[in-house]
Amino acid sequence: MNEKKEIQDEIKSITNGLPVPPDDAPPATYFDQLPEAILNRWKNEVSQPKIKTIAWKHLIASAAILTGVCIGLFFITQKVDVPVPVTSAEAYLYIQENIDDFEGLLEYGDQVPKDESWDVPSDAIHEYLMEESSEELIEDLF
Q1: Which runs of consecutive H residues, i.e. helices, occur in the chain?
Q2: How many Cα atoms occupy the beta-carbon half-sphere of 37 within 13 Å?
Q3: How far apart are CA 20 and CA 28, in angstroms?
Q4: What is the pLDDT of residues 5-17, one digit of tens each?
Q5: Taking Cα atoms as reference points, which of 18, 17, 20, 16 lies closest to residue 8?
Q6: Start-to-end CA span in the chain (Å)
Q7: Among 9, 73, 80, 127, which is least packed by CB within 10 angstroms?
């Protein structure tokens, strides 16, 4: 023991007041108990079953990929209704067949007598055309 104390005193004198590192020697019975402590620890770990856990990041990434695939399949399998163009002849035939359905939509309805013709004086027509022709070129009218 004196030897240790002399060594520590010498270190203190050399370091000029710096703290002396503690003695890191293990306890006297440490190496005698080490094999038994290792075996006990190993037995405890083996006896407890380990549950394999998936990291949360992997779980979230898998869910996101699965959701994307489901959304993609949804849009791929949807039927797209492409409007079919209707010709004017087909529209005319449809209106003729279902004219009763369109009566409420007509602007004049029953107010205009169907047998009488419109009697517009030719002077009024000529005057209207002259007013229109003053605003635009005559070629644009016809």
Answers
A1: 2-15, 30-47, 56-77, 88-97, 99-102, 122-135, 138-141
A2: 6
A3: 22
A4: 888 788 777 877 6
A5: 20
A6: 128
A7: 80
Above 90 in pLDDT, residue 45?
A: no
117-to-14, 113, 114, 124 alpha-carbon distances in Å: 132, 9, 8, 16
At residue 124, does pLDDT exceed 90? Answer: no
Whether residue 48 contacts residue 57, with contact meaning beta carbons closer than 8 Å, is answered with: no
Q: How far apart are CA 142 and CA 140, in angstroms?
A: 6
Is-contact 132 141, C-beta < 8 A? yes
Report residue 28 CA to chain centroid gap: 65
pLDDT at position 136: 57
Rounded Cα distance, 57 and 141, in Å = 73
